[in-house]
Amino acid sequence: MNYTAQLIAARELSQSTLPSTATLYAPLSGAVLPLTEAPDALMALGLLGPGVCIQMRGHKLLAPCDGTLVKVSEGAKQWHFRSQHGLEILLYLHLDEPSICNKAKLKYLDGATLTRGEEIAYFDLRQFKSAPLAAIMITNLAPSTLTYYCQQQVAANEPLLFIGN
User: Fold this and answer.
1) Which residue intervals of the chain are DSSP H helices?
2) pTM score, two decimals?
3) From CA 1, how far away is CA 58, in angstroms rounded?
């Protein structure tokens, strides 16, 4: 049940060689790292689903897809989304601080219907000791489903994860 997203060269992606059935967009800007960089072992081993990490560089958190913000939990460290196509997405912000709620301006809470790229929160990164590391995972894919990513740096609302069929 261990599966992770696979890195693919950008030139291969641009040649449309990927049989992509869905695309998730970057919810924030920063350096893209393999999921093995996640601080939690369940995430790093891919046990919660395929995905990537992003070392947060921008201040905005955007909706990664059209769908629903199912739940915000752990003091705004965990964001659960459901895409209009049924993908369950978990965004986990890793910080050494117990809560970021008092350092975030949340625009939406549980149950909000969102459009891809819509701003859902704003973080003033100057208030943190270090920039958050975000793990983005798709938690309801079958282990045989191929998931790819190609960026080393990503801007918010750019294509991030490509789910194959």
Assistant:
1) 10-14, 41-44
2) 0.82
3) 33
CA dist., res. 87 & res. 50, Å (int):
12
List residues bridging with 72 in a β-sheet: 79
CA–CA distance, 91 with 141 (Å, rounded to integer)? 15
- Using one digit for the tens of pLDDT, what is the confidence trace for 29-66? 999 999 998 888 888 888 888 999 999 888 888 999 99
Q: Which two tokens stand for residue 119?
A: 């701003």
Cβ–Cβ contacts within 10 Å for residue 122, how many? 13
Distance of alpha carbon 109 from alpha carbon 71, whole angstroms: 7
pLDDT bracket for residue 81 (50, 70, 90): very high
Domains of the chain are 6-164 (2.70.70.10)
Q: Are 44 and 36 in contact (CB under 8 A)?
A: yes
